[in-house]
What does this fold into?
Amino acid sequence: MDTSTTITHDEHRDDEASKLGMWLFIFTELLLFAGLFIVYGVYRYENQEAFHSAGKELSVPIGTINTVILLISSATIAMASSAIRFKNKKLTIRLLVVTLLMALIFMVNKYFEWTGKIEHGYLPGTDTLMNMEQGKVLFYGLYFFMTGLHALHIIVGVILITIVVIRVNKNTLSDENPVLLDNAGLYWHLVDLIWIFLFPLFYLIA
Amino acid sequence: MTQNESNQTHVSFRDVETRFKGLFAWVFSTDHKRIGLLYLYSIVTFFLTGVALGIAMKLELMAPGRDVMDPETYNAIFTLHGVIMIFLVVVPGLPAIFGNFFLPIMIGAKDVAFPKLNLMSWWLYVLGALVALSSLFMADGPPDTGWTFYAPYSFKTNTNVLPAVIGAFILGFSSILTGINFIVTIHRLRAPGMGWFKMPLFPWTLYGTGWIQILATPIVGITLLMIVGERLFSIGFFDPALGGDPILYQHLFWIYSHPAVYIMILPAMGAISEIIPTFANKTIFGYKAIVISTLAIAFVGYFVWGHHMFTSGMSGTALYTFSLLTFLVAIPSAIKVFNWVSTLHKASIQLEAPFFWAVSFVFVFMIGGLSGLALGALATNVHLHDTAFVVAHFHYIVFGGVGFAFLGAIHYWFPKMWGRMYNKKRAITGWVLFFIGFNTLYLPMFFLGISGMPRRYYDYVERFHGPNIVSTIGSWVLLIGLVVIIYNLVRSAKKGEPAVKNPWGGKTLEWTVDSPPTLENFEDIPEVTKGPYDYR
It folds into this structure.
């Protein structure tokens, strides 16, 4: 700390601290979803038949495609973290843009999936769903709530990665201070990880 | 600029030239001390609002029947009192004010690990507060659910539950970010030589608190979001009509909200552990026992939430387990009381206002803690559940415990924060009034609870009349005490005698820096060679 006489506090930089902070934040995110997983667990146990049949109505191919897409995007952002350390700005940006594209495709798939389900009247709060059996109401309540919250996290991730791309492009983020890119990557892996749990819970165990 | 920098060494953080002027120099400051004071001013404002609501409730309860308000208003008032006091005052209270101001100084750092995030936490706090309080001014009136937002009523009532719940969610986010900030600060920014067991106890309790904030708050966050989902989309998770289970809501709510009381009380215990050795002029007794019991409370406190739901129809196994764990969590708290009392044994005590607050904290905290055991035992709980006894117990812990520790802390650190001394006689007068008022207000509620007066009713039968009058009069005495205290502190902040660096003879690092501290706290980061309470 040789900055004792300067006025700004921002001179101080501690990458270890930034990473530690990010990991702690990831804990909180996991626990946020944990609450929903508990609710899912309880209602799946209580309504096994209904969850079973409702799960069959979801499209496994679309779910699988989205899983693969997210896994690829996780790989590309991890590669971007390496690329920036090799001082390869062009490759870094390309890899990040691929990540963003994957996120976009995921959201487009999600859009078609959701609109399909909404057309069938499965949106919580609509009369069609409310008149179905209780297990189905809960299944679709959970489906929209959990995938919705996950999609919100995708959007936040997209914003974060876009900021990283802009900063890499302006050379304010480089091999000397790659911690923001690493943290964006950590966040993106978290989003990926949560999907890895959502996919079997809703699409596969049927 | 260089001229300015060389003069910077002994300029108070309040007088430092910054990019912005006036109010903006505060609300956009990333200085942990200014942020701590921002929290102080906002929290005190909400506290006074909460006090006013509390006084109004006591006024209504002075006599049976309708006195000053109708039942709907009473429902709204106890809800607002709870929401404001819990989410806006007590949960952020000590960590956000004294944690922000003193954590970096006490561990020998120039600021917290993420100063910008710290400022953002305050902004989120303000945003959350505004959203929550907006429910007051909208068409359908303030929520009437109680601060617990129990399902299914919380999504059946027509009052403005939605803004209150969303506000609480935002406040939770602010609390999490503060927790992350403090944990990282403690891990990364301790001064050279300050090993974990050379760290003062207030930072230790902030560390335990930080972990609870991180691990428990997201659960209530998601639970509140589910209430939003229920209200907006009828997702049915807690609606029996749609197959949901309201008891599940209670579980999820208390998984956070029980640890939340440890978020409140741990920093309070930390502040008491700072005050007692200073005024006893003596090393704290059993430093390591206090540290370990702090972590034990944080850990065990996570597994006792079921004791809020003993009458909700859980299985016998669950009841016994939660009851046993509740008794277990009392042990580390009792260890601390033992340590504080032992520190005072054969000590040469300075009788100053902070000391009076600290010992009275131990007194009221013990009443609160022991009455908690009566509630944690299954058989007595059935009798006492949802009575005024619970209200008395809770206020002895949260107002008696956290409130007394808060007032003790502000009297202890006042000279450091404002660089001035307060009028000591007036401070002690305020304490006497407050202490008498507090006990007059809440002790009768134990007896009312045992004889069966339920909580949350605006009316009662005639035989409860006597103790309720005493209680209401107590609320007035407490209010007078509070006015004396606030008047004394506000006046002294401007006109008090200038304070020296170390007016009480404290040994922790905050007493080695200027009063008030400079922007960077330390000219050179100190080397720590001794333990925090190096008296004799």
